[in-house]
Design a protein that fits this description.
The structure holds two protein chains of two kinds. Helices cover 37% and strands 17% of the residues of chain A. Chain A contains nine helices and eleven strands. In chain A, helix 6 links the parallel strand 9 and strand 10. Chain A is globular and about 85 Å long. The N and C termini of chain A lie far apart (43 Å). In chain B, a hairpin with a 2-residue loop joins strand 4 and strand 5. At the A-B interface, strand 4, strand 5, helix 2 and helix 3 of A face strand 3, strand 4 and strand 6 of B.
């Protein structure tokens, strides 16, 4: 009788929580709320990102018009509010404070955009905002580029989590500069690193995880797929596969061919070629 | 009456209101929103001690989908 062998990637800690899923998922751009709900559930994600926008007058409580927030709360998973739309440290700080009051969490995905064309984060304003928010007790998840020096500055002001981009937000281009991401991983072995933005295919997520990243955050890749629910399942598997591959230890690349089949005992007809 | 800007729209409210009273006058109900006055967050705990003045700008934000 054969022995049943099962492997499962390890749990991880981020922002004071121990989680089993390493996929962080966005809640935007889905064809419908029902589709969003199904996709988030099947993804197995334990962190979902949300945002704040202008609210019309009326009852803002549950059953008073905010169906979206009711749905998110019903998942029972961690909520990560963002500061999307901020273009300065001041705007981001105020949005973070508002988010903490509404969502009841000290987690904040810090986004300060520095360029409207490629939505590249503003490193100077991001570091400035991170420093203030950390002093106020926030757990800051900073969206940054793959620039090592910016990563250092964010770590210097107390960030325990870094979220470098794979490529531009919503581009689906994957990891533009894997070497830069590797450099950040090597420089900060003790920080939680999450690739945020630019992932388009499940294989991109697997690649990020194989680099030793602790997680991936994505939204468009799932929500804009032809079948978001199926794609959410694909990303669940892809992230798990990448993590298992990293934990298992990838073989060293070689510059030459090396047969995998033993050469000892090769039949005689090969010996005359 | 004074004129203030609420979420980008000019609106008239009675003079001499604090934030809590202004929110009520603007017919926002419940707790599912957060507020900034002239670009600065105002915590619920300080609504009653924060006055709204002519030409102030108020932003009232609530949860939405985000990436």
């Amino acid at each position: 009788m054969s022995k049943h062998i099962e492997t499962k990637s390890d749990t991880w800690e981020i922002g004071g929580k121990t989680l089993s899923s390493r996929l962080l998922i966005g809640s935007a751009l889905y064809p419908s709320p029902a589709n969003m709900e199904d996709a988030i559930k099947i993804s197995g994600a334990q962190i979902v990102t949300v945002a704040l926008r202008r609210q019309a007058a009326g009852n803002t409580d549950a059953k008073g018009g905010n169906d979206f927030w009711d749905i998110i709360k019903s998942f029972g998973i961690e909520v990560l509010p963002n500061t999307a739309g901020s273009h300065s440290a001041k705007e981001a700080i105020n949005t973070a404070r508002m988010a903490r009051e509404v969502f009841g969490t000290n987690w904040i995905k810090l986004e300060v955009i520095g360029d409207q064309y490629n939505l590249q984060p503003d490193p100077f304003e991001t570091v400035k905002a991170a420093e203030v928010l950390i002093k106020e007790g926030f757990e800051v998840f900073p969206y940054t580029t793959d620039d090592l020096v910016v990563a250092k500055r964010l770590a210097d002001v107390g960030c325990k989590i870094l979220m470098p981009w794979g490529s531009m937000i919503g581009s689906g281009k994957g990891l533009m500069n894997p070497d830069n991401l590797i450099a950040i991983r090597k420089q900060f072995p003790d920080l939680q690193l999450v690739v945020d933005a630019g992932i388009g295919k499940p294989s991109h997520a697997t690649q990020a995880m194989e680099l030793g990243y602790d997680g991936v955050l994505l939204n468009s890749a799932i929500a804009l797929a032809q079948d978001p629910v199926k794609m959410a399942d694909a990303f669940r598997v892809a992230v798990e596969a990448g993590r298992l591959g990293y934990e298992a230890g990838v073989m060293q690349e070689r510059e030459f061919a090396s047969p995998s089949t033993p050469t000892v005992g090769t039949p005689f007809w090969h010996q005359f070629n | 009456m004074i004129e203030i800007i609420v979420n980008g729209t000019r609106t008239a409210i009675p003079n001499g209101l604090n934030v809590k009273e202004a929110v009520s006058a603007l017919e926002y109900k419940g707790k599912g929103f957060a507020l900034a006055l002239n670009g600065t967050f105002v915590a619920v705990a300080t609504y009653e001690t924060t006055m709204v003045r002519d030409n102030d700008s108020i932003e009232i934000l609530a949860p939405v989908q985000g990436g």
